Amino acid sequence: MSEPLIIERNEQWWTFTLNRPEKMNALSPALVQALTDGIQQAHQENISLLIFKGNGKNFCAGFDFTDLETASEGDLLQRIVQIEIMLDLLATSPAMTLALCHGRNFGAGADIIASCKRRIAANGTTFRFPGIKFGLILGTRRFQNIVGTQNALDILSSTRTFDASEALGMGFMQALQDQDQWPQVIEQAQTNNAILSDITRRNLYKVLYANAESDQNLAALVRSAAAPGLKDRIRAYLKPN
Question: What does the record list as coiled-coil region(s) (predicted)?
Fold first, then answer.
C-alpha cells in the first residue's frame, strides 16, 4: 500500500503531496496524522517554505467517510478534532505556506487551502464547504478572515460550489496558474521567501496572523460536532437526492 502522504525534503522547502488519488485524497486518519507529523517536523527543522498539492484529479475531497458505519460518534468526533488541530498547526506556521490546488475540493480539503498563506488554483478548480449541512463548524473563521464576512456567509450558509474565477475575485485564490506553470510558481515562492530572514519572517507572520491561533476555533468545532446525532446528520448529507 502506498504512503498517504509524500514529502519531498529540500534544505529550505518541503513539498507535501497528498497521495490517495483513488479516494480523491480524502482525509483518512493516517493522512491527517502524516500531515500533522510532517508539519511539526518541518517546524522543528526551521523549514521556511511548505508547499501542499495533491496527486490525481484533485487536491483534496475533505473528510473520508469510508468507515462511517463502523466508526462510533466518539471516533468521528476525535477524527474531526484531529483535523482542526492539523489545520491550526498549518494556519499558525512560522513558514510561508503555499497551496497548489486543482480539481474538485470539499470541506476540510478546502480548509487546508484556507490555512495556507498563499493559494494558487488551476483553471477549472472548484471549492465547496458542505460541512454546515451536518452541523459542522470547521475552519469558518479562517475562511471569513480571507474573503470577508458577507462572502463567507453567502458561501457557507448556502453550501454552494464556487469556481476558481470567483475564488480569485474574492481573494480566496491569489492567482490562477495551471499545473504546467506550478514549477515557476514554486520557484518564485522560493525567491520571494529568501528576501526576509527567518526571524523577520516569523515576526511578520506573528503580527499579520495574530488571529489565526484561537481556541475559539476548536471550541466552536467541538460544540457543533458533539451535538447528538452526528452520524445521522452525516448519513442524511450523504444520502442521494
Answer: none
CB environment 153-171: b (16+ within 10 A), e (fewer): eebbeeeeebebebbbebe
C-alpha cell at 94: 512560522
What is the DSSP code string of 173-228?
Answer: -SEE--GGGHHHHHHHHHHHHTTS-HHHHHHHHHHHTTTT--HHHHHHHHHHHHSS
Look up the domain containing 158 and give its range: 5-193
CB atoms within 10 A of CB 99: 27
- How many domains are there within the chain? 1
pLDDT digits (tens, 9 = 90+) for 31-48: 999 999 999 999 999 999
Phi-psi region of 101 (alpha: psi -120 to 50; beta: other; left: phi over 0): beta
pLDDT at 223: 77
